[in-house]
Structure formats: structure tokens, C-alpha cells
Amino acid sequence: MTELGHGTRAYCPFPGCTGGGRVAPVTSPLRGRLSDSQPVSLLAELVDPAEAESAVAAGAEGVGLLRSWFAVLPDGSPRSVADQQAGYRRVLAAFPGARVSVEALDPGDRQGPFGVRGVRALQARPDVLSAQLDALARAMRETDADQVDVGVVVATVTEADEATWFLEEARYAGVATAGVLVDLPAAAVLAGPILRAASFATVDTDGLTRYALGADGAAGTGRWADPWQPASLRLAELVGASGSLAGKEISARGAGVADPLLACVLIGLGVTSLILPVDRLASVRTELARHSFADCLRYAELATRAASAEDARRRVRSAVDH
After folding, report:
1. Which CATH architecture has domain 31-321?
2. DSSP three-state, residue 179
3. pLDDT digits over 276-322, tens only?
4. Whose C-alpha in 13, 51, 305, 314 is 20 to 30 A from the C-alpha of 226?
């Protein structure tokens, strides 16, 4: 498939293509806005670099999270620097001048939820991070990408020192922007000091719900594995407030963001950009345009004061209907 940027045609087998399997030209991304014109960036979450062109066709304003799975071989070892570089180059070429955030590789991914994972695993295996950052830096040079726009994000951060270490490693490699994926309650509680070190934060609504409620939807825990849970929303609120104080961008990803109404709640909690699967961009963009920022603040207050996920959902829907 031919690489493309905004306003370019290329062969594309993905949804959103026009006749003949070609992408309808997109002269600019479709900006997310509330009804009062307040902007809310709508970014794509990509599982594979091959999805970049379909994200462009869907009007994504950038890539909020390029998952690291494509850079891992079946045996769990990282792909070569050249292979990783090719993937990053494809995404950067599709989104010139736009924000692109790449998920750091996790050498501990197979250890289970409570193993040495994320930043902890990378501190034990700095060679894995070094190779990934080298691949990304090379792709940035190839595509003349702006260092402010392109960054990396790491999970399992629970201390400011971990965020500082990650940022220093990234900058040493030539990647100036490094953020944290807030997937653990500890990261939300300590978001203030962590965000003084990190460039930005991404709230993982799935991770916060899973670890705060002790539920992942398996073995009958579905009732608690609900992103509307007030406990996980209050944790997200801590991150939003800390981001506002630090002047740092706060994005959000996960099942909670793909729910258009809960996306409005997250904006009221201080989230400034939303990271979505390509096929959810249009529905969330449409829903945002129906609500003002004042509405989002009201929904957030109602949801965080609720007694349960179902109560939070009911309160917000009632407010919307009236």
C-alpha cells in the first residue's frame, strides 16, 4: 500500500475507502468540537501501522496510541530496529505535522497483571527500550517529523522517578516527548508529581477500572468491570485536575472513551483529547457536538457522585434527556 498524508490518494483495503479500494481524499482532519466550539482532539488508536491510512480517511486528528504489539514477534521478542522503523515511518508519513504517540514495548507483557511490567520491565531491560527509541528516532528523521508532535508513552508508572527516567531515556535517543499511561490507581493518586516529570498523561479507563475494582469481566465480574464505575471516574478526575495544574495534556483511551456519553463525562473530568478505535471516531465526534463544556462538567459531577456504575449511567442519561 502506498503511504499517504492528508490530501493524498492511495490504495486502501480498509473501511472508509471509496470505489476501487481508494481512500477518499481528506484535505484536513475532522476536528472534534463541543456545541460551544471548545475543541476536543479526536485521535486514533492503532493496533498496527497498516491502520494508519484508514485513520486518515476517518478524519483522525492524529494517533493517540500506536500499540506496540506489531513490534513483537510470536515468541515475545522485539522485532528488529529496521522492522520497527518501517512501521513507525508508515504512521508518521500518514500524519505529517500531527500528534503521534507510540506505546513503549513491554518485555514483561507475558508475566500477568502483577508481574514486572511496563516501565519496571524496561528498567530491567533498557536495551529493549533503546532499540525501540532508535527505530522511532530514525523514522522521525526520515519523515522530518517534529519532535514536539511525536512521542512515546509507557505503562505501569507509579512513581515520579520512573517517569523522569523514561523521559531522560527518550530524550537521549532523540525523542523529546514522553508520557505515561495511567493504568494503575497509584499513578492517578500521584498524578501531580508524575506529571511534573512526564510530558503528558493518557488515562487508561480499562486499566483503572480493572485494578480499582478488581474486575476484568471474567469469572462473573462483569458488573464491576464497567468504565462508568464512580471509583474509576474519580481516579480519572485526579489525573485531569493534575494535568490542568501542570499545564499538561490529558488524553483518555479504552472502553469508556468509545462510549460517546461517557466521553463527555471524561471531558468534564479534565480530559482534553480522546483516543478511539477508527470505527468509533465518527459516532463520538457527532455526540460531542451536541453538548457544551458546561454540560460535560455537569455530567461529570453527576457521575462521580453516583453510588454505582448503573446509577452513574442513569443520572447522566436523565440529565441529557431533560
Report:
1. Alpha-Beta Barrel (3.20)
2. strand
3. 999 999 999 999 999 999 999 999 999 999 999 999 999 999 999 98
4. 51
